Amino acid sequence: MILLHNGIVVDGSGQPSQHGSVLIRDQTVESVGTIEATPDMEVVDCSNRVIAPGFIDVHSHADLEVMQHRPEKVMQGVTTEVVGNCGFSLFPTIPSSELVPAFEIFSGRGEKKWPDAAAYFEDLETSESRTNVAALTGHSTLRAGVSGMRAGKLETAEQREVEKRLSACLEQGSIGLSTGLNEVPSSYGDFDELVSLCQVVKRYDAFYTSHLRDYKFRILEAVEEALDLGRRTQVPVQISHLQAAGYKNWDKMDAVLELIDRASAEGVDVGIDAYPYLAGSAGLTQLLPIWSLAGGTRYLLQRLRDPDTRQRIAAETESGMANRWQDVLLATMTHPDQADLVGKTVQDIADERGCSGLAAALDLVLETQATVVIVSFNQSEENLRKVLSHPLTSIITDGLVTDGKPHPRTFGTYPTFLGEFVREKSWMSLEDAIHKVTGLPAQRFHLEREGLLRPGYHANITVFSAAEIGTQSNYEVPDCAPQGIEHVLVNGSWGVRQGQLQQLFSGRPVRT
Known about the structure:
Largest sheet: 8 strands, mixed
Oligomer: single chain
């Protein structure tokens, strides 16, 4: 037995904290409150430390990383994560990243393939991941496996095959469907296609999560589409990493939240998630018009080499830009000769080359075979506060380990949230903040016996110093170990012990 003794118990419900202890027997919480230590207990002194449920990251891209025993999540206090987001999952069998550029996020898999959810979960169990893992089935993965990168409506037989594969994955334990509606090929799915897939989701009491069709100029229409799917099919709808992207759209956030609040009041089962950063991260190709990506990487590069087609792509890219090229940092460059470009903005590259930011961006897509990963400064602090503090919002990482300078959210989301935004800026109480990273996401995704410190619940627990939690991780030096996380228990076993963070931390992240 393990006794987390004499700490500040924040139980994940949002209720006021209490001084007390937590007793763990095997993999579960046995009792919470005033508990006397006995000789048969391993006693851990938690004086002046917060004892909280383990943090739950319901929007992770660590599909591959969880099999590689990477420590970045558990070091932050994460004990459970949901992978397969934004339409991209490792199952059913995914195509080559040469066909779909966005599948580059899984390039470390080598030749490994998972034909269905059962195969993925079997490998996950064998690998004994550091965290508990639930998985969504990606719409882009489903669509690419059936119709490749062909644009337009699915044929009837193709639609049935996509539904069949989704149904099989849900039957095998996948918890829902994710879309990435501003990434190909998920973006080719129209509303009727999504309705049909959500009807499959409904049969399994599963979830629909959506990387919206647009976060910029048409964000209101994109949010309404997601809410209409909930109204039409009665599935729970999760709006992924909500933001109004680009300074030209910052004034839309109030209207977006009003749409969500109204739908929730009407009975739509809707939730939100968001990360505590002003910048996001994606492939540079996400800034290009959708039609230019049809057919895959080879066809995109051919279009960029054709002067007339490049001019059309340039015009539409520029008209769709909601911020500036100096707001777009290069995070990952795949070729060693381009390593010196990492950390520079697209505008920096343009100035060095004596061309426009737009021309530099399109040249970079060509030069890197469409593999550039960017960090893009999209949000205002005012809007970030509105979203993070909204009662429907769970806090997520949206994180992925890449070469170069990956987004710092991969290493420091929860220390940043609890340190900068809760302790320093006082955007919400500690109890409300812990609810947003534990009880709320567990309830939202029906993660049974998770997210609360209650007898009979799984012993997934994070102990930290509220006065010290934080991180030095930033956009220039992202790969830093967090501070103030002292103990993490995953299913009653130690994931982190006090003083282990630097030992666990593997330094500069590399794909394995």
